[in-house]
Amino acid sequence: MTAETSQTLDRGLRVLTLLADTDHGLTVTELSNKLGVNRTVVYRLLATLEQHALVRRDLGGRARVGLGVLRLGRQVHPLVREAALPALRSLAEDVGATAHLTLVDGTEALAVAVVEPSWTDYHVAYRTGFRHPLDRGAAGRAILMGRGSECEEGPGFALTHGELEAGASGAAAPVLGVGGIEGSVGVVMLADSVPDQVGVRVVHAAHEVADALR
C-alpha cells in the first residue's frame, strides 16, 4: 500500500477477487484468514459490498459474488471490442474470412466482436451476440484449450468443420495472459478445412489482441 491508495477499497477489491475465484463461496472466517484481518473488518466489507449488490450471502452464511457485477461486466464488452478491432480487421483482410473475438459468458461462448473481409465475393455471416456451447465450434474449443496445457503441446489453435454451421470451417486460438478475460480469436470460412497457415495467422492475431488488452 502507498500513501495514494485506500486500504479499505483495496480490501474490498480483494474480497471480490477471492469470491470470484471460488464456485462455492467463502465464510467470514475463511475470508478473515485469507485477508489477514479480523472478522469485524470482514463483516463491514461484506455489508458495504452487499449494499451495492456486489456480494450476496446465502442461508448458510457463505459469501458469493452478487448480480451487481453483471452491470459492471456489461460495460467491459465495448472496451474489449474496441481494443480488439484493429487486429480483427487485419486478420479478416489477410485471410479473406470473417474474424471474431469470443468471450466466455457463463457456460457459453459469446461473440463480442466480428469483422468481415471487404474484398471477398462471399463469406460466412457471423453476428455479434452469437452464442454457442463451449465444447462446440473452434472459438469455444480454443477457450477450453487455453484452460489446459494443450496450447503448449499442440499448434496453439483449434480447428473444426461443420459443428456450428453446415459447410463452414473454423480456426481459433485462445487469448492468454489477460487478467479477468477468457476468450479466443478466430475465423470462420466456407471450406472443407482451414489451412494450417491460417491457424498460425489466427494465433498471431490472438497475441495481438492480448497485447492490446494488457
UniProtKB/TrEMBL annotation:
Q: Where does the HTH iclR-type domain lie?
A: 6-67
What Gene3D superfamilies does the record tag this protein with?
A: 3.30.450.40, Winged helix-like DNA-binding domain superfamily/Winged helix DNA-binding domain
So which domain of life are we looking at?
Bacteria
SUPFAM superfamilies named in the record:
GAF domain-like, Winged helix' DNA-binding domain
UniProt domain IclR-ED: residue ranges: 68-214
Name any one GO molecular function.
DNA binding
Hydrolase recorded as keyword: no
Keyword entries, A-Z: DNA-binding, Transcription, Transcription regulation
Which GO annotations describe the biological process of this protein? negative regulation of DNA-templated transcription
Keyword flag NADP:
no
Name-wise, this protein is Helix-turn-helix domain-containing protein
